[in-house]
Amino acid sequence: MANVQLLNRSKCSEIERYSIFRATMDKEDLHILRLMGEIDRNGNHSQRELSSRLNISVGLVNTFLKRLVNKGYFKVKTMPRNRVKYFLTPEGLARKSKLTVEYLRYSVNFYKDIKMLLLKKYAEMEKNNVKSILFYGAGEVAELAYLYLQLSNIQLAGIIDDYLHGQNFFGLRIMDIDRVQVNDWDMVLLTRLENTDQAIRNLMEKWVNLDRIATI
Fold this sequence. Notes:
Largest sheet: 4 strands, parallel
Shape: globular
Order of helices and strands: HHHHEEHHEHEEEEHE
Number of helices: 8
Radius of gyration: 18 Å
Mean pLDDT: 83
CATH architecture of the largest domain: 3-Layer(aba) Sandwich
Helix content: 40-55%
CATH superfamily of the largest domain: NAD(P)-binding Rossmann-like Domain
Number of strands: 8
Structural class: alpha/beta
Strand content: 15-25%
């Protein structure tokens, strides 16, 4: 890996802000985060299948799903043979990202956890034939994302940052959001832990479909 000068950091770094606290995440929020993660990966699971995968009761799965649909985080589509498919909405994707931040904030194993999340995300992308991605957000999380990207077959086409465009990131010039208009990427991975809802809105305003936006 080429030697590069890492981006300038503030006195309190992004990682430090999210690893300085030591507490227990609310158990219900953790269940909801895992549920949203399962549906983000495969919205075709039945409630019984979700119950088995998450190791919680079918009744609890049903309660969480109804609550999340009512809040506008999921859309439901009726499928053949009396099955339904759940889709994360932009609001749901942003909520999932915020819950992930909460999980990482309270994790005593930040680096281990974010490595696991990134490797899992890249494996999902490869399964879906994703060949190249853009990062949205430059900083320590993006640096970790780049590091673990080298363990996959996915190429980094570019990196976007609203405030750091023009700087260097592992040999790539950081660009503004108009970079998405270059048709050389398959997905955008949000590589920042703050204001992800605004980032999603910014991308959708540039006509990036929600199914081409990924969160950690």
